[in-house]
Rhamnulokinase (Streptomyces sviceus), 476 residues
Amino acid sequence: ASVKSYAAVDLGASSGRVMVGRVGPDSLELSEAHRFVNRPVRVPEGLRWDILSLYGGVLDGLRAAGQVDSVGIDSWAVDYGLLDADGALLGNPVHYRDPRTEGVAQKVWATVPAPELYAATGLQYAPFNTLYQLVADRLTGAQRLLLIPDLLTYWLTGEQGTELTNASTTQLIDPRTRGWSYDIASRLGIDLGLFAPLRQPGDPAGLLRPEVLEETGLTGPVPVTAVGSHDTASAVAAVPASGERFAYICTGTWSLAGLELDAPVLTEESRAANFTNELGLDGTVRYLRNIMGLWLLQECVRAWGDPDLGELLPEAAKVPALRSVVDASDPVFLPPGRMPERIAEACRASGQPVPVSPAEVTRCILDSLALAHRKAVEEAQRLADHPVDVVHVVGGGTRNALLCQLTADACGLPVVAGPTEAAALGNVLVQARAHGLVGDLPGGRELLTRTQPLARYEPQGDTARWREAQSRLAGV
Ligand code: ADP
Ligand code: LRH
């Protein structure tokens, strides 16, 4: 039987990679063709993505990948490039951690009250939702808006579209109809004509342009296939679960913790708990909460001069558990810089011991993440009335055994960890599906369970101590 090769371009906030998935009727092998850093750049006007360098990384990756049957692109959500009337990029895309959206939400809510906005779009409040970015930006001269994966797809193929799963993070999509929210856009003066027509995961997105073939050494025609272009949508598609009674946590720069549902939860209680309803494959809803994730550790590690995680994590494992915890969902941790200091300030403000050494701070971060995972998994089950028996952890954080064990302990549930490159695997599966090689979502998940290395962590200790730690954060 024939084996096909798919290039999955997966751009995370901390690194980009081009992976090659080889898919047969009963096999799936993933290998890394190229990995490159994604370093946000601080210029006088603010924090920007180095999009040309990322595109260069994609081209290098495609060259390293060699001949493939299709290419798919996913990346972090919400951000975009603006094009002029000639299709040329107007400036570097702004990073979602740029402070220009401060206070914008309050202005938006004066026109569309927050409860109404939630009922219409199902999106959690985050200052960086595309909607708030658009209200903050001067759009002079902009004729077209392309979300990051759509922009790279456009550069590769010359064709424009707006892929649905990522569009669902703009706060301009109605999760019930899975189409544009015309009413919200018009009341806020946002011209939906800026967006290219919607594309569904699996749709064709053009062929690599001749210049791209020349630069990558590939022989055409090579199609680009729309995938779940929001990295989290691709990662959730690659959660190796069976049945419905599972929660997932996509751990990387962020922790995205929640459930896969058939319908959005748009209640006022859900809004108050800041759960989001993003769109997934096959009519599913990704009901989840954003938790600051390993960003907290990345920023500390950067402040400490880049010590090796392989040495730091065993030291953190020796620090007594749950001495101090911070609220890992708190937007105070969103901007870059001064992370060890900000964590110390949060511990002081809640009357807990201040962690000092890198090992102590690291332990505080991992305990705090596990605690936030517990809270999200518990609240999602309650708000969606959807009980689970297992927590699947996917993404870069699966390399952190301490975090996986603490998450199992905190949730009081078994954790199945892996795959690490879930987003790339979800990306590959959608391409393989579009070409008739694998079946539906459960079929893809079953293939992953059979082919990918997974680790299991059983919960240990008494969950009461996690409840006690949570109570220290109440009312802070
Ligand atoms: P993103 O896609 O958001 O850029 P990843 O899924 O690549 O993020 O995950 C990156 C995180 O994975 C890092 O911040 C780090 O904490 C963790 N990680 C990567 N390699 C290791 C390792 N060898 N040991 C422990 N953790 C690791
Ligand atoms: C993770 C992610 C997450 C979004 C954030 C902006 O990479 O896509 O799902 O909320 O970046």
The mean pLDDT is 97. Residues 255 and 293 are 4 Å apart (CA to CA).
